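Key idea: predict the complex, not the pieces.
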Amino acid sequence: MTDVPDIVVSRLPVYLRALQYMVINGKSTTSSQELGEKVGISAAQIRKDLSQFGEFGKQGTGYNIPFLIDSLLQILKVEKVWDVVLVGMGELGHAILRYQGFVNRGFNIVACYDSDPLKIGTKINNYSILDVKDLVKDAKKAEIKMAMLCVPASSAQKVTDLLVEGGVLAILNYAPLSLAVPTYVRVQYIDPVIGLQRMAYYLNK
Amino acid sequence: MTDVPDIVVSRLPVYLRALQYMVINGKSTTSSQELGEKVGISAAQIRKDLSQFGEFGKQGTGYNIPFLIDSLLQILKVEKVWDVVLVGMGELGHAILRYQGFVNRGFNIVACYDSDPLKIGTKINNYSILDVKDLVKDAKKAEIKMAMLCVPASSAQKVTDLLVEGGVLAILNYAPLSLAVPTYVRVQYIDPVIGLQRMAYYLNK
DNA sequence: ATCATATTGTGTTTATTTGCACTAAAAGGG
DNA sequence: CCCTTTTAGTGCAAATAAACACAATATGAT
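Result:
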């Protein structure tokens, strides 16, 4: 358990999401077979993945969904809510700030930053846009560990360096470029175009 | 080349993005070493990946960037622009429609749809919001192969079925759930929370 | 012209990931 | 109570992916 491959970890949130969806639909138990069909992953794969962390099912009956959800929340450390900062209040930053889907899945935006003097101080959804100059100081003080990065590509690396300086250890990067960070900092990339280009490869012209 | 692993294909857009960024910064040649440092992938990996499609570099000197970009555009089939439809004109759909970064990377939103009578017919950025009831017919007629899906989770599968019926073969799914599609249809998932949860695993509470 | 340096493409090895198939256990029916 | 069915967890084999290391080749300096 001290050395679970990242590829296994990356599937857990997908299982979690499907299980939470099942609960909403009134189900209380499931099997690796059924879950696998929902998420498009083989039943054996799911059992192997879960077995990395313990035994969560019962032979013959499968998995108790609320228990498995709870276990996954613990494993992923999202049974409590993480404070996250948002940097870059353009079009996308605004949409993210207004999105209601973070809190009940473990993340709460506690502050948002921009460098544009025209934006700093204005209010959106009860959030005051703060000056990115205060980012390092604020992040250190509030011990922020996670950030979402929505600035233009041209300033993304600069802001990343600030986040790292401020003690942030996990960055969700919406800027369309690869970031350089120390090995102890994690980055997840969200670039819709990369997804589209991956799929275009398989299309016929 | 008829059977390149998807994991290789998935890295090509990352290489492409980094190379295009290099061109902007005035560079005209690079090496697998340098590119690897930029994108966080080993030089050997990059060479192996590219060798799946041909020989693009020269011993001693490395890669000519414009030539490699061109080659990757061809391989990924994004040297021309694909028509894409957008379904779901909520907060996120609006932000996507206003985003300027698709066209110069190979994708053009040609129509947007919603099911809300209050939205249908209204205009955003020169786009009229169309009735999702016309989606299947329109997609067939215009031979649309790609779609972005931004509807709520509760209607995502239903709309997906419409897209498949309309002949769409590639779906960029922003709805936070796994979709069921025929094997010949590809889906790429964009769920920021999954990225955050993956990273939370590695944080200490 | 020769040598030192840089760097690709690739055969081979190593590591990782997935799938298979079986044992063990649980539940339900007659 | 026993038999059938279901299904988890897992050791092992197969498949896949990544890393290594080296021959081949290009450049530029002396």
